[in-house]
Amino acid sequence: MDMERSPSRPISPLLPAEDDPYAYALRRAEDALEKRWLHKVLVALNAPAGWPPWAVAGVALAGSGLMAMSWQALGAGAWAPRLLLLLAAVALWDAFVLLAQPRMGLAFGPFGSQFVILQIPRWTAAFLAGLLVRWWGAAPAFALLAGIELLAAVLLAWGAWVEPRRVEVTQSSLDAPAFPPDAPPLRILHISDLHVERWGRREEQVLELARQLRPDLILLTGDYVNLSNVDDPQAHADARRLLAGMSAPLGVYAVLGSPPVDRNSAGLFPDLAVRLLRDEVHLLEAGGRRLAIIGMDCSHDILRDGERLRRLCASLPVNAYRILLYHSPDLMPAAVELGIDLYLCGHTHGGQIRLPLYGALITSSRLGKRYEMGWYREGRTHLYVSRGVGLEGLGAPRLRLLCRPEVTLVTLGPADPPINAGARGLCRRAREGRSVHYGPSS
Ligand SMILES: [Fe+2]
């Protein structure tokens, strides 16, 4: 590109005047989501991560045995041995799928907790099928159960081995009316939720894509290591290796993600060319285009973080294109009110596991499914919620279903020349939200 790098400068480090820095730093480490049920369930379900193999196998045997006993009690005792065999076979398959992930460079999560969690829906299905014996008879109920368990086995392999394997590039173009009409397009690569456990296929691909796509600017929106690896020096070294490999003519800018995930991640950035923005605004000028990059820490407290955003925006120059980097989409209402032009975030992982017609099962957003993934436009604000690159941590199985990992290439250009409203609508639809496969093939 023909743009030279312009010096960027913080114009508004935010520190409430009434507070002392130490108390402010402590408050910033809090996370509203840590008090919610989802985080507590994830922590509780991670308990088997530290169990020895015999304990994990014992739980699997005990659970399957209980299900066989339930079938006996429900009048299908003759089918109990076949049920035990079925549950043992699918449990072995689950173990194989999970143990193969590290060898494939796809995920490196704790085996015990993931394995036990996968058995819970299998046992539930066995119990519910047992309830059908009374009406359907044992053979049809067993056939239905076998079909469900086998379908789950196929979906597990797809979610664990196939979808996390390839990082997609989602490409979009947006008008930037604030840019001079003769300014060249500005290419922004947005990357979110890396969740590095170890150096693997996705880390390799992200680095390769960052080189191949040749963006002018790279913007990162948090969650650099996996929640299971927050205190893991190797994961931090690998995340640092990934960040160190990123460069762009106008720079690489980053914000932190959820406090429990990025508790130690600020330590990744010293000595790197990646600039970590913590409640700061940086101005960039290149080729006549003026950008204000607003980078904020995320506490998932909408009111508190929204107020901090308001204070940051009070000092912005009027004619700059405003880009907000904040880990979750929860500040969208405030961003619209404050005239943010482009708001980039992640956090939801698009649900990571999605159902046809329904979408994300869980978003972990304070606003639920309102901004679960992709593009949203309200007022002048364009919001992009990335599906992210990595996988949820702790006991959550390292799966993606109907929700591939992604990075996003956003091309900002000057406003289109005036055309009639109907043609403009068609043009906008054609230019926004195009998703393509790009880069290393699987
Ligand atoms: Fe995340």
- SSE ordering: EHHHHHHEEHEHEEEEHEHEEEEEEHE
Q: How many DSSP-defined strands?
A: 16
Main CATH class of the largest domain = Alpha Beta
Radius of gyration: 24 Å
Please outline the major beta sheet.
Answer: 7 strands, mixed
Based on the structure given, which CATH architecture of the largest domain is correct?
A: 4-Layer Sandwich
Residues in helix, %: 25-40%
Unreliable stretches covering 5 or more consecutive residues: 1-29, 416-442
The best one-word shape is elongated
Strand order of the largest sheet: 1-7-8-9-10-14-13
Estimate nothing, just give the exact number of structural domains: 2
Strand content: 15-25%
Q: Strand pairing plus helix content: what structural class?
A: alpha/beta
Bound molecules: fe (ii) ion
Q: In DSSP terms, counting alpha (H) and pi (I) runs of 4 or more, how many helices?
A: 11
- How confident is the prediction overall: mean pLDDT? 86
Per CATH, the superfamily of the largest domain is Metallo-dependent phosphatases
Distance between the termini: 29 Å
Q: Could you name the CATH topology of the largest domain?
A: Purple Acid Phosphatase, chain A, domain 2
Question: How are the SSEs ordered, and which strands pair?
Answer:
Blueprint: E1 9-10, H1 21-28, H2 37-45, H3 53-73, H4 80-104, H5 111-136, H6 138-162, E2 168-175, E3 186-191, H7 201-212, E4 217-221, H8 233-244, E5 252-255, E6 274-276, E7 280-286, E8 289-295, H9 302-313, E9 321-325, H10 332-337, E10 342-345, E11 354-355, E12 359-360, E13 374-378, E14 381-385, E15 406-413, H11 421-431, E16 434-436
Parallel strand pairs: 2-15, 3-4, 4-5, 5-6, 8-9, 9-10, 10-14
Antiparallel strand pairs: 1-7, 2-16, 3-15, 7-8, 11-12, 13-14
Helix pairs in contact: 3-4, 3-5, 4-5, 4-6, 5-6
Bound molecules: fe (ii) ion (FE2).
